[in-house]
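User: Structure tokens for both sequences below?

Assistant:
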Amino acid sequence: MTDLERTVIDNIKDFRKIGGLEELLNCLENINYLDESKLKSYLELYDIQVLYQKTGYLLSHYKEKMQLSNDFFKYCKRKIEKSTRYLTEKSNDDNYYNNEWKLVVPNNLFSITNQSGDKLV
């Protein structure tokens, strides 16, 4: 058994296993609410710096829709140390460094389109 918050954290952690980044973004787009206390408890179970970075970065783009507070993102940032990480394993010239999350991410990540052709965020 799992709940939505655990599923979100697990999918952010291992998005390559669920169909890739585009599929993860399609799934996140359809979520209207997440319980912050549950998200925090699942993040703490893993206690992996890059997971805090990825979660904070990705969910910040859905902050209002998912009804997440600034406190949740402050919590994630407190768990980030000095090292830079990558959102995806691929390192190429089409990435940029997000200083807020100390994360290298693909350019235009949130302009990926889903199969129906609708723009994501």
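Moving on to the next sequence.
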Amino acid sequence: MKPTLALFLLASAASLNAQPTPSGELHFKAPGSWISDKPSSSMRVAQYRLPKAEGDAEDASLVVYYFGASQGGSAQANIDRWISQIQQPDGSASKDKAKTANTTVNGLKVSTVDVSGTYTAEMAPGSGTFHKDPDYRLRAAIVETPKGNYYVKLVGPAGTIARWDQAYADFLSSLEFR
């Protein structure tokens, strides 16, 4: 068999077995009281500021990320990484204090984490500078869609996050892939 014919047959067989790229996007409804910001990178689908609660120094931030199909890591790897961004004031393991759950929202598998303490994430990837924000809370979710995972990360002062607990729950309940 000629090499070009063999390559054509292999390419044809591969295209028959290839799965079509799923169309659709993740849709959600953010409360009108959240402030929509222009996403600061192409990996951010949406970016919001949640106005601070009385007594807190700053607003909370909620970002929805999408890195592409098969990109961004597994749900568990992200949950573990997010938990590691919070340190406990008494030195105990944040993993022991974190609340994780798995649920289904409108047919989508959603894995969540909720953990409080001192927020120590890197300020920008590769910057070498880190947050050191005490009394913070991180709530996050990985949403599995036919197009790949979306990542939701909410972080800010604990009082402000508590102020928005129901709105965040409603936001997650609105997730829909279409």
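User: Anything stand out in the second?

Assistant: Confidence is low (pLDDT under 50) at residues 2-18.
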